[in-house]
Design a protein that fits this description.
By secondary structure, the chain is an alpha+beta fold. The chain is built from eleven helices and 13 strands. It has a six-stranded antiparallel barrel with strand order 8-9-10-11-12-13. Strands 2-3-1-4-5 form a five-stranded mixed β-sheet, sandwiched between helices. It has a two-stranded antiparallel ribbon with strand order 6-7.
Length: 394
């Protein structure tokens, strides 16, 4: 089993807008190139390098870990805007053990598991470290809470009870195998050429539920564009939590197929193991988000909402009371100073009161859907004493 050094950057596990984390992680990988000839970006915020050659050259695992910490520290800098934050360096036999070792070393910077001692090191970790929630839940109900107790089960019984994936996790938990299936994400270095070389046979698209060849070609093409331009030049959409459609849609740099999560063993948002900068949790799409507009979502979401005027039959402006009710039934709508349109139907409002405890950050809004003559469907927002057009439905 290959002995690896893993660099764990908790603040870079999740990609955000503008590609700041992607650029910082690229600098980390580039800095490690001065220490080892091969550096593998495993997934955002996690990279690994084999220790056999570098450890012999620099005088042992301890010396190698010190050099890696110095190289990464030179990338991070010392100002308050440092995107790296705290990092961990771990050395162990196998990628899985090395990742857990690096995670445990975030506070102490570096941790080393002696050669051949990875099974003993893994034995004390909880079964949640396998990042298989259903398997972990079942094991806990059976009274099996650590990787050591899971590894002690007979392999034949594991296969019969948990299937092939359970056997793979069982072998990793016992230190027989070094890596969980699906842990690595495809990177731009590996996605440019299909497995087996450029002349590898083309797979049947979607055969047996596998990845279609068209998907693989698309991933290689996108990785090639990133190589020609830069990491943040290619972005993808991601749905996050929020009340309005503009809050829920985000564009983040594309990091390879299946790059939504931080990977097996990564801390979940909102848990004590979340070491991301500032301690801010990710906006979970599942909510709850009181005041969220129900589906369907608008087809067009304006980056800059347009001012609108909504009046009743008497020409008086329609408002929203403190109890979240309209002051009158809407009759006409004008957007951006254009001609009036008759309101034929409406729904809402959906009020929201964000940061009600803050004197400066408090934001009170109310959204409603309005249908006008000619089939126009609009998403309006009431804020600051006025109405704004936030989105348009198809």
């Amino acid at each position: 089993m290959e002995r690896l050094l893993v660099v764990w950057c908790p603040a870079l596990l999740e990609e955000h807008e503008r590609g700041r984390e992607t650029r910082a992680f690229g600098q980390v990988v580039a800095a490690l190139g001065a220490v080892a000839h091969r550096v593998d970006p495993v997934r955002p915020g996690v990279c690994a390098l084999p220790t056999r050659g570098p450890s012999r050259y620099f005088g042992g695992d301890e010396a190698l870990a010190r050099l890696v910490l110095q190289a990464v520290a030179a990338v991070g800098g010392s100002d308050d805007t440092d995107p790296l934050g705290a990092i961990g360096v771990g050395i162990a036999d196998g990628l899985f053990a090395a990742v857990l070792c690096a995670r445990s070393a975030v506070a102490a910077n570096a941790a080393i598991v002696p050669p051949g001692q990875s099974p003993a090191f893994l034995a004390r970790w909880p079964v949640d470290a396998l990042d298989r929630p259903e398997l972990a839940d079942l094991l806990r109900r059976l009274g099996i809470r650590t990787l050591g107790r899971f590894a002690a089960l007979p392999g034949a019984q594991v296969l019969a009870r948990f299937g092939a994936d359970g056997v793979a996790c069982h072998r990793v938990a016992g230190g027989t195998e070094g890596e969980l299936p699906g842990f690595r994400l495809a990177s731009s270095r590996t996605a440019s050429t299909p497995p087996g070389g450029p002349d590898a046979p083309v797979r049947q698209p979607g055969f047996w539920g596998g990845t279609a060849e068209a998907d693989a070609r698309a991933a290689r093409a996108v990785a090639h564009v990133q190589g020609l331009l830069h990491a943040e030049a290619v972005v993808r959409g991601r749905l996050q939590g929020g009340r309005g459609p503009s809050e829920r849609a985000r564009l983040i740099p594309w990091g390879g197929p299946g790059c939504d999560g931080a990977g097996p063993g990564a801390p979940r948002a909102g848990t004590r193991g979340d070491h991301r900068r500032g301690g801010r949790d990710a906006r979970h799409p599942g909510g709850p988000w009181p005041g969220r507009v129900p589906p369907p979502a608008p087809v067009v979401v304006l980056t800059r909402p347009l001012p609108a005027v909504l009046v009743d039959v008497g020409g008086h402006s329609v408002g929203v009371t403190g109890a979240g009710m309209l002051t009158a039934a809407p009759a006409r709508l004008s957007v951006g100073g254009q001609a009036w349109a008759t309101v034929t139907a409406w729904a809402g409002p959906w009020p929201s009161d964000e940061r009600w405890w803050s004197t400066r950050g408090r934001r009170r809004q109310a959204r409603m859907q309005v249908l006008t003559t000619g089939g126009g469907a609009h998403l309006l927002t009431r804020e600051g004493g006025g109405w704004w057009l936030e989105g348009v439905y198809d």
